[in-house]
Amino acid sequence: MLLVVPRRPFKFIGAAALILVLTAATTTHIVAGSELHERVAAPVNLVIMLVFALLNWPAGWRDLLRRERRPSATPAYVR
Predict the structure, then answer these.
(1) Which superkingdom, per the lineage (predicted)?
(2) What is the distance between the alpha carbons of residues 48 and 3, in angstroms, rounded to a whole number?
(3) CA distance 63 to 43
(4) I need a surface site. Which of 18, 22, 38, 70 has the fewest CB within 10 A?
(5) pTM exceeding 0.85
(6) CB neighbour burial string for 12-47, b if at least 16 within 10 angstroms, e if fewer
C-alpha cells in the first residue's frame, strides 16, 4: 500500500520493507532447493525493489519523519 502513496518518503519506506521480506524469500528459496522458477523470481523481485528504493531515496534521513510544512496565507513580511 505504501508504494502507491504519492509522497516519496512513504514509497521509500514501503520499498525498504519489501526488500526485507524479499531477502528472506530469496534466502528461503535458495536454501530449501525450490524449483528453478521460484529461485529466480524472488531475486528478480528483490532487484526491482532495490531499484525502486534507490529512485525514491529521501534527500536526508530526517525527511522520513519530517512533516510537510504548508506555506502560510500571510506573507512573511508586511509593508
Answers:
(1) Bacteria
(2) 13
(3) 29
(4) 70
(5) no
(6) bbbbbebbeebeebbeebeeeeeeeeeeebbeebbe
Give 23-42 pLDDT, tens digit per residue: 998 888 888 887 888 788 88
| Nearby residues of 11 by Cβ (< 8 Å), 6 or more positions away | 2, 3, 5, 52, 56
The domain segmentation of the chain, as residue ranges, is 7-57
Give dist(CA 45, CA 38) in Å, integer: 11
Report the interhelical angle of 8-32 vs 36-55 (nearest 10°). Answer: 160
- Please choose, from the candidates 63, 64, 24, 68, the residue with its C-alpha nearest in 3D space to the C-alpha of residue 42: 24
The vertex-30 CA angle with 27 and 48, nearest 5°, equals 60
**pLDDT for 8-28, tens place per residue?**
778 888 888 989 998 998 888
